[in-house]
Amino acid sequence: MRLGIGRHDLLKISAIFPRTRFFWLILMHLFYIDESGTPETSGNSKQFVLAAIGLPIDFWREADQALQRIKFRYGIKEEDEVHVAWMCRTYHEQTCIENFEKLSAEERRLAVKAERAKFINTRKKEAKAEKDETKKRKILKTISDAKKLFNKTEAYTHLTETERRQFVRDLAEIVGRWKDVRIFAEIIDKSNYTPPAHSLTPTTQAFEQVVLRIEKFLEKKSSWRHNTRGILIYDNNPSVASQLTLNMKNYFKKGTFLSSVKHLVEVPLFIDSSFSGMVQIADLCAYALRRYVEFNEKELVDLISPRFDKKPRTHHILGVRHYTSNTECQCIFPHKHPRKEIST
Ligand SMILES: [Zn+2]
């Protein structure tokens, strides 16, 4: 006995009622977006990366729990944010503590705290004694930078640099195994940035490209059985939030440079990365891509590479693009060279 309605039944009904649309279900995807490197052409980084990690809404809980489990294994609290660039730094104070590796987690935390307090107090005394205003300002800047570093890394001071890097590798390995997850990104080489339109900044160009690739992905995922929709969740960045919101509204009305936008809904939701584990995963992806293209560090990219959106048979990478004037670049991603752009 046949149960339910088959494809041919739906086609017959569609022929009788042509305006009726039949979908079994709507598949919702969440796309978490974060940046790595500075978008300003004058910034410290040579490359700017905007990365998105997309997952079916039903997979969210499993992915979030996997992140929490690994944090628990390394003694990182659930409420503490994973910020890969800060985790992978060398903490000078740890190297000053004798037999740091042999201490317990709590002893390590206390020892680093004491070492950091000593550093700040010493610099403060130096600043107070300094008569030269230029030198004094330099010391005060050192104090301000150190306080920022200490604040951003407080959650990981109980881990050695080796353990922190292993944590990042373990996380990347897990992401690489998430079969229904896809990674999208635009990598922009800022050294000779000449956008196709003058109004495009590295951030707005990267955003448009990522939106375009996500839209294509969602279009491919839709079928006669189901329709697919996606929503963007962006690491909160007040300096670009209003611009990207405006751009998204324009994409809904007029489409992007190359395509209309029909499968994404709503403007991007900007949330604080400390509240969202998946934004932290997007941070990991963006960091891995930038370190690969800028410093040829392959380890993390190799681990997450199974998740790049690719053509099914050829495995040609569709989801990630490198925009660079360097025609000799040997990275694995498809390239777009500025001179070949069509001006709009
Ligand atoms: Zn490249």
Q: Based on CA inertia axes, which overall geometry fits?
A: globular
Mean residue pLDDT: 89
Largest sheet: 7 strands, mixed
What is the CATH topology assignment of the largest domain?
Nucleotidyltransferase, domain 5
Alpha-carbon distance between the two ends: 59 Å
Ligand kinds? zinc ion
Find the structural class using helix and strand composition. alpha/beta
Total helices: the number is 11
| Total count of strands | 7
Please, how many domains?
Answer: 2
Describe the protein.
This protein is of the alpha/beta class and 344 residues long. The protein folds into two domains: 24-71 and 167-340, Ribonuclease H-like superfamily/Ribonuclease H (Nucleotidyltransferase, domain 5, 2-Layer Sandwich); 92-156. 46% of the residues lie in helices and 14% in strands. It has eleven helices and seven strands. It has helices at residues 7-16, 60-73, 84-87, 92-96, 105-129, 133-153, 161-177, 202-221, 238-254, 277-295, 299-304; strands at 25-36, 47-56, 182-189, 226-235, 269-271, 320-323, 335-336. A seven-stranded mixed beta sheet has the order 5-4-1-2-3-6-7, sandwiched between helices. Helix 2 packs antiparallel against helix 7 (161-177) and helix 5 (105-129) packs antiparallel against helix 6. The termini are far apart. The model has no long low-confidence stretch (mean pLDDT 89). It binds zinc ion.
